[in-house]
Every structure is written in structure tokens, then in C-alpha cells.
Amino acid sequence: MAGTKKNKSVEPKTSRGNGGELHQASATTLTTNQGIPISDNQSSLRAGARGPTLLEDFVLREKITSFDHERIPERIVHARGSGAHGYFELEASMAKYTRADFLQRPGERTPVFARFSTVAGGADSVDLPRDVRGFAVKFYTREGNFDLVGNNIPVFFIQDAIKFPDLVHSVKMEPDRAFPQAASAHDTFWDFISLTPESTHMIMWAMSDRAIPRSLRMIEGFGVHTFRLVDKKGKSTFVKFHWRPKLGMQSVVWDEALKINGADNDYHRKDLWNAIASGDFPEWELFFQLFTEAQANKLGFDVLDPTKLIPEELIPLTKVGRLVLDRNPDNFFAETEQVAFCPANIVPGIDFSNDPLLQGRLFSYLDTQLSRLGSPNFHELPINAPKCPMHNFQRDGRMRTTVPKGRVNYEPNTLAPDSARENREAGFRTFPTLDAGDKLRVRSESFADHYTQARLFFQSQTPSEQNHIVSALVFELSLVETLAVRERMVSNLGNVDPDLARRVAHGLGMPKVPPPSKPAVPPSTMKPSPALSIQKKMKETLEGRMVACLVTDGVDKAVIDGLQREVKAAGAKLVIVAPRIGGVLRSDKQRLPADFTLQGGPSVLFDAVVIAPSTDGGSKLAREAAAVDFVRDAFGHLKAIGHTAGAAPLLAAAGIGRDPGVVPIDGKRGVAAFVAAAKKVRFFAREPMVRSSP
Ligand code: HDE
């Protein structure tokens, strides 16, 4: 055994199979889980140097056993996620509407843990499938944990929890063949959807650019269901929760998403991690959409139906506070994987509504945590434990870590007069409602209009966004092999918008457009809501984005200096892409290190690009397929492209013509002009030049 004195560097000498010596830098001694010091972590215990391994080797057995059990069942949905710590800061007191303690005092911060996720894929699937994103936030308030477990889309596929297993089975990998992974483009999903007209509104969102976000930092979030706020006097106001990203919303284009998944599996996870690690903290604003029962009754649809949203133009949003994520997890498993969200975690002053989907969720999440985390004591895991005092008489169970004292584990009692008691004043009181009626298995008549809001969404999009929806539907349905499913789906789309159905039918090569299916309630047309479009409210900013500069030896120092200055001033990050990772020699013969090689840094990973080779370098790059793709993809993905004179042969090889987003950089003004173009985020007007739409 090597010495173990604290703070002294210890180097236990352990032999390897090859007889070499391994020096361990750690200052503490390696031990088993029982604290027994380990002398050799390289070889198992054997009967003779070439003999069998001995069962007696408790060090080996413990290590392997622990390893064998490292995985816990992944979440059945939302398995792939990325999390971060942060805080919620209240900006306006909501005392008028709720007694919730964390919503009373402006300026007060509540610690939070947020987890973003995709829904359909497994824990190790890609970050950019076409999918809904989970947006779950655990507020560790002084009155207990409040979990706002939402999505980046304000409506859902189904109206009743009893359909959730069917929905999820249909979208997951097909059970016989175990593919496709993390993809809705297959028969079972569209079979189910085409038979479930209530899903049509959600389908419009899922086929829109909302389902392929540029960054988790650039998504909106929604609580989806109607909730209640309850004030000190017991008065209730309905509320819907909305998160708005400070960086604005942004999405990628589908072709780009496919290529990002190949180039960087962890695109979103890495982006979130790097932003937080570099102090560029992601931020959202929380808004409440507040309304009374009387207002709800006049809307013309049921606010308990989770396939409906309330347009902001009808009921405005009230700003409440901001969410800042400022700390990465220390350990992915202990925090992001073990965090157990539960919509039933609610604090006094907030209450549920009778939305039948929400009601089912109140049951489901606790159940899933029991199976996933294996014990009712999951609330003792640090990430799940409330940060306020917690007292009750629940005891024992697997993996209990707290050690309660004394003989009293029941209530009422006299033997422990100071032990916890119920508190009618401070305690959670359910808002009293008169909910009585015949026991029925029915869907309310008020939920029967399945198409009006699907039409509202489609008609609120820009023509370019509508093209994307049409293309997404054509792509997905083209991978459905059963022709009857394709036809049934197009029939349903006929109720949303005849032109949409016609275009999808055309894109699928159908000889004629199938007639619209018979809706339960004929749809009506609502006034378009610009707030439902990403493009209509896109921020012209480079903040939080990445600009890549493709260079060769001889790159002009002035261009690099100008870019470094201007890109930083715009709040973005400049990265250098070069033929070799060691970098290039600038025009002044100084070395410019590279962040990516051309192979490892395709333009899909960046928001705008500059092509700045020397004259000689430009001709060489024109013969390099990866360089041609770099430029062609940036153009096809509608990005700003800055270029020096040396880039001419490469632009020609990529077939790039004149375009407002293609900006020559010649001297100082050129860099500024490029950055101004890059702030436009995307050049949607270019799209018809590069992509046809059915
Ligand atoms: Fe979930 N959902 N869900 N869901 N959900 C889960 O809980 C469920 C629904 C959402 O980052 C599971 O811990 C049912 C709507 C998020 O850990 C499970 C129904 C919305 C997350 C479950 C729904 C969501 C989940 C799986 C229909 C948006 C990830 C693992 C009644 C408002 C949370 C887990 C995280 C996770 C059940 C519908 C959001 C199985 C039964 C609607 C963000 O309990």
C-alpha cells in the first residue's frame, strides 16, 4: 500500500500485465464501495500468473457488479435529454392571482433544474429527428417542488390519457423489426394518426419547423394544459404557461437536420453545454396567459381540450419572470438521468384542471419513476429532493438514505409532541369545484372539432413555412408503404385546407386527390395568429450563434481580425475551419490554429460562413469535395456566405451565383456587411432557387 497522507501526492505502484508501471496521479487512495483500500486496480486475483481467476476476488466482483447495473431503464418516452441547473427570477408579483410563494416577491430567485428532450428516440439516439421537444422545469420553491413538465409545442396529439400507450407504441420503432429509431416516418405512426383526427392540429406543428429546432436555447415552451392559479382568498384564475427564448426562435431546414445528425449526433446537447460552460447562459421569459371561466366559455372551443390553444391575439400574455440556466450538471446520470419530473408536483396557489390528458399524467409519472428508479425513495436523490424542509412519517423502502430518529413513525401521536402536523393555513388545498355527473366513458361533445385549429395553424404560417409543412408531410408519407394509410391521411388533410391536401397528394404522385374525410364537426376558419409562425417573429440577431471561417495558408490577417472583432461584437462565436487541425499560416506568416478540419466541421454545424482562402488555396479547395459541399450546403440551407476574392473558384465549383446573402468581403466594410447579412439568420427568399416544393 502506498501512503495515504492527505494533500500529498501519492503514486501507488501497480503492475500491469506487461510488467510496466502505471502512475496514478490521484492524491487519495482508491477503495471499494465498502471503503476498503485497493492495492491493484489493473489485474484480477489469479491462482498463478496464468491461472484461473478466483471467486474470492471481491474487488473484481464488486467492480463488475456495479458496472453490470450501471444502466437503469431509460424513459419510455423522452429518453434522450439534456439538463442544466439555473434559477427562475420573478419580475412581476403574481399575488393578485396566486398565493404560490415563489410568485410573490419581484427579484426573488428560485433554483431550478431543466431538462430538454426528444420524445420518440432512445437515450442514445440523435438530437435532430423531426420530433416534439420536452421542456421540463423543476422549481425548488420554499413550499416544495413545482414541476412544469411541458413541450415546445402548445398542443398535443390526443385528448385522453387512455390513448397515450397507443400513440407512443405507434411512433416508436415497429415491434417486430425494431426500426425506424427516432422517426415518425413509418406505417404504424401514420396508421394511428390517420385514424385519430384529433391529432391533426398537433401534426401540423410536428410537420412544421418547430420540430427541427436550431438549438434547445431557441425553442419556446408550453405547459399545454389549462391550469388554475388560486389566490389567498381562494379565488381561481385559469392559466396557460408559456416560455419564450431570449435568443428568439430558430429552426434548421430538413436537409440540414439530416446532415447534422450524421455530422454531430450530440448537436443540441453540445450546444447547450458549451453555451453554459462559456458563460453565455440560455434564458427564457415566463409568461402567463390568464383568463376567467367566463372568458373561457366565450372562446368557442373547450379550454380543457389539450388539442386546442388560445391565440395570444384573443387572450394576451402577461410577463412573469425569467429562467436562466447557468450551471451544467456535475454528473449526467446522477442529475439529468435520475431527475424525476411529475406534473402532480404542484405547490399551494397552483392547481390542476380537468383536462383528461393532464388527469392521466397525474397518475402516470409517479408510476414511471417507481419503475425507472426502482424505489419510492427516489425523492431522496439530491436532484429530486426538495430544497425546503420536509417532514412526514413515511418510512423504509428500498434505498432509503435518510435515517429518521425516535420511536414515532405515525400521526396523530403524543409521544413526539414536536413532530410534524398538518397545517390548514399553509397546506395545499385543492380548489373546490362542483364536479359530479353520471359515470361515463365518453369524450365531451365540446372536444369534437378536430380541424379548425389545424387550419388556424396552417393558415398562420408564411408561404415558406407552409412549403416546409407540405414537404415534411410528403417526406413522411412517402416512407409509409401502405397506400391506404397515405390516402386516409390526405383525406383528413382536406379538412384542414384543400390546397394542402392537393399539394401533398401531388407530392406523393397520387393520380387524384382523395376526397376529404367526414369530420365530426365541420371546421370553421379563425383569424390567423402571427404568433404561431416562427418566421414572422424571428429576431434578426447573431447572438448565441456560430460563424465559421474556412481558411487556407495565406488567409488575409485583416479579414480574420475584422471577423474576430465584428462576430464577437454581434454576440456570436467565430470558429476556424482549415484543411488540417494544426491550422494555417496567415498572410503575415503567423499561425492561425483551427477549431475544426474540413472533414470534421461541415457547414451544417454553423449559422453563417465565410470562405477566406488565399488565391492559390481557393483553387485547391475547388477540387476538394468537402469544401464544395461546405459552400453548397451553406447556400442550400439559406445561410449568409461571406467570401474573399480567393474563394471565386470554389464558389464557381459549388455553382453559387449572385444572391443578397452572398457577400464579398473586401476590406473592413466587407466584414461589417457580412455580419449584417448573417444577422438575418436565414434567406428564405433563396429557397425556391435551391429546393422545389410540391
Ligand atoms: Fe409525458 N411522460 N405523458 N407528456 N412527458 C413522461 O415520465 C405521459 C405528455 C413530458 O425530462 C414519462 O419521467 C402520459 C404531455 C416531458 O424527464 C411518462 C401522457 C406533455 C417528459 C409520461 C403524457 C408531456 C415526459 C416518461 C398522456 C407536454 C420528460 C418518463 C396522458 C405537456 C420529462 C417520465 C423529463 C415524460 C407519461 C403526455 C411532457 C411515461 C401518460 C401532454 C417533457 O410518465
The CATH homologous superfamily of the largest domain:
Catalase core domain
Radius of gyration: 29 Å
* Tally of separate helices: 19
Major sheet: size, sense and barrel closure?
Answer: 10 strands, antiparallel
CATH class of the largest domain: Mainly Beta
Strand tally: 20
Helix content estimate? 25-40%
What is the first-to-last residue Cα distance?
73 Å
Q: How many structurally independent domains?
A: 3
CATH architecture assignment of the largest domain: Beta Barrel
What's the overall geometry? globular
- Helix- and strand-based class? alpha+beta
Instruction: State mean pLDDT (0 to 100 scale).
Output: 94
Identify low-pLDDT runs.
1-25
Bound molecules: CIS-heme D hydroxychlorin gamma-spirolactone 17R, 18S
CATH topology of the largest domain: Catalase HpII,  Chain A, domain 1
| Beta-strand percentage range | 15-25%
